[in-house]
Amino acid sequence: MANLEQNAVVSPPVEQFDALNSINGLRHSFFLKVPGVEVQLERIEAVARLRKYHAAAISSLGYELDDVASAEQVHGNSVEFVHRAQGFESPVGGADGLVTDCPGILLAILVADCCAVFMADKKGRGIALTHSGRKGSELGIVSRTIQAMERLGIPPADIVTVLSPCIRPPAYEQDFAATIRRDCLIGGIPASQIHDKGICTSSDSNRYYSYRREAGKTGRMLALLGLRP
Known about the structure:
Elements: E1 14-15, H1 18-21, E2 26-31, H2 43-60, E3 68-71, E4 79-81, E5 87-92, E6 97-100, E7 106-111, E8 115-121, E9 127-132, H3 134-138, H4 141-151, E10 159-163, H5 176-186, E11 194-196, E12 221-227
Parallel strand pairs: 3-5, 3-7, 4-6, 10-11
Antiparallel strand pairs: 1-2, 2-12, 6-9, 7-12, 8-9, 8-10
C-alpha cells in the first residue's frame, strides 16, 4: 500500500451531499480549493502542488493512494469498468467515466469548471463517477454511464445522481449542467433522484478553482466516491 507521507498536512475544505450520505455503504467527498497554495500554473504543475493535500483527502475517507482508480480525462465519452485499483497517479487511459461494483475501490475525478457527476445505486450495488464538461456532455457521456450501470444490473430507477458545482451561465456560454440533467431524465433516472444545487464554480474564488476565471492556469477540485469494503 502507498505511503501517504502527509506530515500533518490537513485535507482541503470539503463538500458532501445529503443524497449520497443517505446510502448505506457509500463514501464520498468533493474537496475544494486549498487556501494559500499558489496554483496559477499549467495543469501538471498545479496538480503536483496539490498532491499532498489530495493524498490527505483520500486518507480522510479511510483509503490509500493504491486504493484509487482515476480517469485520464480527455474530454471524451469513454466509460470504463474498474475491477481493480491502479493507484491515484496511474489513470485509466482514455476514460472520462468510471464504474465499479467492487468494494474497496475509490473512484477519483479532478475538475475545475467541469462537472463531477456522482452516481450511486440506492441499494448499494454499484457506483459511477464521471467527468462531464461541455464536450463530454455533448458526446453523451452521462447516457453512456447510465447504460454501463445497467450492465451491472442496476436499473436507472435505482440510480441517485448528484452534480458537483460547475461553471454555468452567465459565466460560461453553455449550460452543460442542463444537458446532464436532461440526459439523466431521458435515461430513466427519476427527477427526485437528480440533485443539483446550481452552484457556479466561477462565482466563488474562495471555495472553487475555475479554469475560465483563471484563464487556464489553476488547481483542481477532487471528487471521490467509493463502496466501503
